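question for whoever is on the cluster today: can someone run the full assembly for these? two chains, 384 residues total. i dont have access anymore since they changed the login thing
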Amino acid sequence: MDAPLSRSTVTTPPATVLAWDLPTRVAKWLLAALVGLAFASRYWGDGGLVWHQWNGLAILVVLVFRVLWGLVGGSTARFSRFLRGPGAVLSYGVAMLRGRPPHFLGHNPAGGWMVIALLGVVGAQALTGLFTTDDIAVYAPLTNVVSDETMARASAWHQQIYPILLVLLGLHVAANLAHSFLGGDNLITAMITGRKPRGTFADRAPATPGSVARALGCLVVATAAVFGGIVLAGGNPFP
Amino acid sequence: MRLRLAVFAAFASALAATAVMAQSDIITQREALMKEFGRVTRPVGGMLRGGTPFDLAAVQSALDIYAKNAKALVPLFPEGSGGGETEALPSIWQKKAEFDGLLDKFAADATAARAAITDEASFKAVFPGVIRTCGTCHDSFRKKS
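^ ran it for u. tokens below:
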């Protein structure tokens, strides 16, 4: 009686496939929100920059989490899966110029390196922030363990990295908008829902998700690493 | 003739050396006063955020130093003292009145705050307004690192 129904359920493939597991998406949007908040708290936050310093610490935690998740997380989040050599990046670039770039379920070869660049520059900004002072009344968590010269240098870097980060963010947002609205591969929706329409992908599909329990474990390790690291270095992790 | 020239050259170079020395001397002096601002403000910053316990005497001595050093700084930026190893921007001498005005305001605010701050609540209400002038002045007149 119900045989035809069950057969049709079996033979109709789902219209979408998993591209990004939940922890990857949460970390991604959390990091984006925190970087935005760090900008807001710098210019419109409290005078003592307490809010801004908490932003920085939270960013560090998410960054460490994302690095751990890049080692043990879902398949599309793993560095070993999305980092490709210069040859692959070049041929992807050539295919793009010809107007027919292959679609990737995860990061494409160029996007993968943008992820590394963003993690690196945001990380450099967060780390130099730990040693930064406004030379008036604001002293970041690790300023008490370094010399005045180191503090001055870190403070200068904290200002110089900022425009580099803005340029990278601009490129990143522009590339995603272009892929999503001109390239027929809606990366923005995929990063929200975690799914992409079934299709032909150059990398392995569907993605294998990392478990939420493992993600929570990574989060605990990341939090302990950031706050414990500051304490071990002799700083005060609570601004 | 040659002797006279040599004597003249010796005098001229001695004069130039004195001028350079005087200039580096004046830069050292004003930097020392600025550094003292930083040294006394650092613990007060901890009190503002609540990390260090409130200490009225330390706040008052910081305010005294603000008023004293700010007044002492005004004559330490004469015309032509913008060369050499300094973080002072040329804009100081382009907008000298504005620059001196900020130092005067800082001294006056510190003196007023000395009278107004009697406890932790008045400290937290008044002190941030006093040191806001530091940032205003650094933004326009100090070399960006």
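summary bc i know u wont read the tokens: The radius of gyration of chain B is 20 Å. Chain B touches chain A through 17 residues (CB under 8 Å).
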